[in-house]
């Protein structure tokens, strides 16, 4: 993390914490949402629409949970002094990339290579 200033680290840490708080607030709001209550009435089409909405909500929640995990991991790496180092090649990840994607664990070159391998 030597390539990052204290101010840069503080800025990224605050961003990560705000992201986490928003995700948790959103998840709590979903729990209180009256549409999450069991649906008793209506016909099959109404129930199918509701089930489709619930499925989409659960997919979103799954993505939110993964993002919270990535945020927690990034915060742990900041605390341990290993944040901003590519986990693939060991290169320093530039501040601009970290600012744009604070949960990243790879430099842009390694990420692009990974995506090429996944597509190929």
How would you describe the overall organization of this protein?
With 120 residues, this protein is mostly helical. It has one domain (6-119): Up-down Bundle (Four Helix Bundle (Hemerythrin (Met), subunit A)), CATH 1.20.120. It is 68% helix and 0% strand. The protein contains 4 helices and no strands. It has helices at residues 6-32, 44-80, 95-100, 108-119. The longest helix has 37 residues, at 44-80.
- Derived from helix and strand composition plus strand pairing, the structural class reads mainly alpha
Tally the helices: 4
Query: CATH superfamily name?
Result: DksA, coiled-coil domain
The total of beta strands comes to 0
Task: Tell me the Rg in angstroms.
Answer: 19 Å
Q: Helical percent range?
A: 55-70%
Instruction: Report the β-strand fraction as a percent range.
Output: under 5%
Shape: elongated
The profile of the biggest β sheet is: none
Question: What is the CATH C level class, in words?
Answer: Mainly Alpha
Question: Would you identify the regions where 5 or more consecutive residues have pLDDT less than 50?
Answer: none
Helix-strand sequence: HHHH
Give the rounded overall mean pLDDT.
85
CATH architecture: Up-down Bundle
CA-CA gap between termini: 33 Å
């Amino acid at each position: 993390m030597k390539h990052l200033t204290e101010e840069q680290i503080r800025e990224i840490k605050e961003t990560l914490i705000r992201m986490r708080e928003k995700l948790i607030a959103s998840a709590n709001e979903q729990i209180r949402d009256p549409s999450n209550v069991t649906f008793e009435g209506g016909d099959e089409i109404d129930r199918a629409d509701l089930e489709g909405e619930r499925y989409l909500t659960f997919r979103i929640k799954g993505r939110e949970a993964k993002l919270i995990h990535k945020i927690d991991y990034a915060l742990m790496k900041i605390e341990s002094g290993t944040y901003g180092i590519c986990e693939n090649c060991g290169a320093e990840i530039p501040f601009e990339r970290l600012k744009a994607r604070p949960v990243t664990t790879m430099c842009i070159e390694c990420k692009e290579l990974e995506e090429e391998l996944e597509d190929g």
